[in-house]
Design a protein that fits this description.
The structure is a homodimer of 148-residue chains. Chain A is an alpha+beta fold. Helices cover 18% and strands 32% of the residues of chain A. In chain A, the strands form three sheets. In chain A, strands 3-2-7-6 form a four-stranded mixed β-sheet, covered by helices on one side. In chain A, strands 4-5 form a two-stranded antiparallel ribbon. In chain A, strands 8-9 form a two-stranded antiparallel sheet. Chain A starts with a helix and ends in a 5-residue tail after the last helix. Chains A and B meet through strand 1, helix 2, strand 2, strand 3 and strand 6 of A and strand 1, helix 2, strand 2, strand 3 and strand 6 of B.
Chain lengths: 148, 148
C-alpha cells in the first residue's frame, strides 16, 4: 500500500522519524505527477500562493533550498522568481497526514503574485460581492519582460 | 475566456468589487469538478489542512458558514466534523489570482486532523529524515466510531 508509511506515522508521537526517501516514495502525486504545495511566509504566517511540484522539482527544492515548482501552464520546472526576481527561500517543508499536500515555509522576496500583489489571495468574499483586499505592491511591467 | 474576471481583477486596487456569482462561474475546477481549499486557523495562522470543494459544497459553505468539503475517498459532501465533532466555522473565504485555489480562515473546534493531530501537517523534513512534530491531541478512537 503506497501510503503505508503515512498510516504507520498516524500514531507516532513527537520526535519519531523515518527516512525521507521512504516518505518521498509514498507521496500521493496526481495522475499528472503533481502535488499541491502551499507557500506560507515564515515571518507573518500569511499564505503567499499555492503551486504544484513534481518529484524532481520537490527534490531540487530540498537540495538547493530555493523553491522550484512545476508550472502547469508552461509544462516545465519553474524556479519561482526566475524572471521576476521574487524568489522563495525554503525554511521548512512539511507533508500532510496522507502525503497528498506540501506546506512550505518560505522567505519571500518581494510580491509573491505575478500581479505584483503581496499574496495571490487578494480576493475576498463579502456577502454577494468579491472584494479586492489590497492594491498591487509592484507594477507587473517592472517585474517581467513577459508574463511569469 | 473562463478566467476573464480574474484577468480583469489583476489590475484592480483595494476595495474594488465584482459580483460573487461572476467569480463562482469563473472558478477553475479540475476535470473532477474540484478546487483545493486550504484551511487556516483564524487565531494562530496555522494551516490546519487542505481539502477539496466542488461548486455545491463551496456554495453550502458560504451559505451556512460551516465548512463543507467534498470527500474524494467517499465521493460525497463531507461536512467537516460530522462524525468527529471537530467542525470548522468559516470566518473568511479568499480566492487566488487565477481562481484555482481557495483559502478559508476558520474557527477550528478540536484537532483538525483525523489522526487527532492539531494540524494535518505534522511531518517535517529534517535533512534525510522526516520527523513527527507533535503528538496527537486526541485519540482517534475517541473521535470516531469509524474513520472520518
Amino acid at each position: 500500500m503506497s501510503d503505508g508509511v503515512f498510516k504507520r506515522l498516524e500514531r507516532a508521537t513527537a520526535g519519531e522519524s523515518v527516512a525521507l526517501r521512504d516518505v518521498l516514495d509514498a507521496l500521493q502525486f496526481t495522475d499528472d505527477g503533481l502535488i499541491p504545495a502551499i507557500a506560507q511566509r515564515h515571518d507573518t504566517g500569511e499564505i503567499a500562493m499555492v503551486g504544484y511540484m513534481n518529484r524532481a522539482t520537490l527534490e531540487e527544492t530540498l537540495t538547493t533550498g530555493r523553491v522550484c515548482y512545476y508550472s502547469r501552464s508552461r509544462n516545465r520546472a519553474w524556479r519561482k522568481g526566475e524572471e521576476s526576481g521574487n524568489i522563495q527561500v525554503l525554511r521548512e517543508l512539511r507533508i500532510d497526514c496522507d502525503g497528498d499536500a506540501l506546506l512550505l515555509t518560505v522567505e519571500q522576496t518581494g510580491p509573491a503574485c505575478h500581479t505584483g500583489q503581496r499574496s495571490c489571495f487578494y480576493l475576498k468574499v463579502n456577502g454577494d460581492r468579491v472584494t479586492v483586499t489590497h492594491s498591487p505592491e509592484r507594477n507587473p511591467e517592472d517585474m517581467y519582460g513577459s508574463t511569469d
